[in-house]
Design brief:
The complex is a heterodimer of chains A (about 350) and B (about 350).
Chain A: E1 2-6, H1 12-36, H2 41-49, H3 51-54, H4 58-84, H5 92-108, H6 118-144, H7 148-168, H8 204-222, H9 224-234, H10 236-241, H11 246-270, H12 284-294, H13 299-323, H14 327-349, E2 350-354
Antiparallel strand pairs in A: 1-2
Chain B: H1 2-22, E1 26-31, H2 41-56, E2 60-65, H3 72-83, E3 88-91, H4 97-106, E4 111-115, E5 125-130, H5 132-146, E6 151-156, H6 161-177, E7 182-187, H7 194-206, E8 211-214, H8 220-228, E9 232-237, E10 248-254, H9 257-269, E11 276-279, E12 286-289, H10 297-312, E13 322-323, E14 329-331, H11 339-343
Parallel strand pairs in B: 1-2, 1-3, 3-4, 4-5, 5-11, 6-7, 6-8, 8-9, 9-10
Antiparallel strand pairs in B: 10-12, 13-14
Helix pairs in contact in B: 2-9, 3-4, 5-6, 5-10, 7-8
The chains are: A mainly alpha (about 350), B alpha/beta (about 350).
Chain lengths: ~350, ~350
Amino acid sequence: MIRIEARPQPSAVMAYATPVLAVVLTMIFGGILFAVLGKDPLQAIATIFWEPIFGEFAFFYRPQLLIKGAPLVLIAIGLALGFRAGIWNIGAEGQYIAGAICGAGAGLAFFPTESVLIFPFMVLAGALGGWAWAMIPAVLKVKFGTNEILVSLMLVYVAEQLLASMSLGLLKNPEGFGFPGSRNLQQYPSAHNAEIISGTGMHWGVVAALIAVIFAYVLLTRHRLGFAIRVTGEAPRAAKFGGVNPGRLVLFCLGMSGLLAGLAGMFEVAGPSGQISIDFNVGYGFTAIIVAFLGRLNPLGIVAAGLLMALTYIGGDIAQSQLGLPAAAIQVFQGMLLFFLLALDVLTNYRVRFGAAEVL
Amino acid sequence: MKLTTLLASAAMVLGLAGGAIAQDKTKVGFVYVGPVGDGGWTYEHDQGRKAVEAEFGDQVETVFVENVAEGPDSERVMTQMALDGADLIFTTSFGYMDPTNNVAAKFPDVKFEHATGYKRLHSNVSTYSARFYEGRAIQGHIAGNMTESNIIGYIGSFPIPEVIRGINSAYIHAKKVNPDVEFKIIWVYTWFDPAKEADAAKTLIDQGADVVLQHTDSTAPQAAAQEAGGVVTFGQASDMGQYAPFPRVSSIIDDWAPYYIARTRAVMDGTWESKDTWDGIGAGMVGIGEISDAVPANVKEEALALKAALADGSYHAFTGPLNKQDGSPFLADGETADDGTLAGMNFYVEGIEGEIPQ
């Protein structure tokens, strides 16, 4: 008989070593997978991890890391706040969409007026949109005790329908010959979230992500509210005795993660993506869950994890094109990363016992 | 400006290097929105890629990336292909339109071909699409003859001109042979989602449809029709021949091979130039899958005659007299629709019930 039992004192070293170990294991088993597919495993892994940062065209890929990583980090930071307190927002993808729609809508409402006030207004609208979308599961949970995992997840699909409706109706480009999709905000200077320094990939979303990281770090380590979040997650009863208002904490955590996801959507639609279209969302809200856990729910860890995920996407596409690896193999490779991380987490916190249970 | 300068210089270096390489190999890139195994849209584009390889052998090298999300990801993948020395890049989804033009601006020596779009902002961008509505006319003709309940179900993907054009064309030709025919349309808001497509097909069959047309790419509606029994379907994007001879009685096949071969040859010859191509049955871009024996012989004969007329241009699928849904005139007797109207078609023709969702 095999049982697992909790370790009385999980190793502190292991808690930080597991992400690194998970990456190493992913490389090994991913390499085996690539070898089975008939590709040189070393070359494949080098293409994924080395080529974007140090390869011939690194000058192009390095800024892309920021562009791909920023929304992941921004969303994951918000999610981590909730996850720390045991509040599970799985619907960041929906809040990301809501933020993008509100942000783009706020900008397009003024087209073609040019003003420096438009972009800040869009940022505000995007943040509010994401926040409001997240407040639906938050209020339902506080008022009626609904499960925020289900409600926030279901609202993703509602948001996707809303996105399709906006692309085909209200926000459709009037000069688009009837095709779906909004005007391209890249061609509307007042609303364009352009690179701050050209060629660096550094747009306002990257700046916002960095600010969010610092903010979350200070909140969690120095602020009373951060303490309340951590205590609620680690010892809910103690938190209650300590005077933490659980309802208020739910509203804060879900609201904050919605706000950050909304901002991510807004910066994306105004910058790299450019337009509201039916397929605008590409799964950042879900990938950010992996990033949050890979980063140990720690703001600094999330930055590293976000960049790592971005790297596997960019490197994965290069490997597809240069080596002919199928997209599915790259996805399996990314999936392995989370799998090994979770498996190692289990082994860090529990130990496996073989044989019959001891008689007490 | 730094990136642009860098990219431009990189492109120049590649252009020079490419000049040397191009003597032996032309590199052709393909960007796909779905997986190559989707059995529909992307599958057929990949067949086109393989046809290019088969045609030119060692003279070409093809590369592709599948499952590329529209937006910044596609822009990155295109840039990467251009940096890696591609001479010609086919981008095969409508949502790649702006990214294609953005990347084309940075790589003036690389030729870009964007499927189903209309923006050619630079002299190195071409657009191409197929007149699928010609195939829909033939489907409508067969469907109108085959239905006994007089209810034809239609699984729509997105309410965009491409899809609406198909619905109108099918309806016009079904109505011609069967004045009592009625269309029931379900929008599934996806191009490829077997579960949603199956649900839509079942709902339509429950509502009495005994013919189900689909503008989505999976075979799920075929399977649903087979299970229900007595329901006619048509293959979409690819032949879906595994469901022949019944329920699948015919199909519309996207055949990109002739176009891809012609454009690759143009790049090799140095005769490539920016243009818009919209080919139909005549040029072989739209194929009609074999009409099975489940279709009565006389109907099959008429359908083939219709195909021949569409192919040689003696008949246009949108020929007046036709009114719009609201009763206002669309085409006078004998008048045919111009390409501009067809490209932006956002209305139903008279007789179709329901509204186009917004």
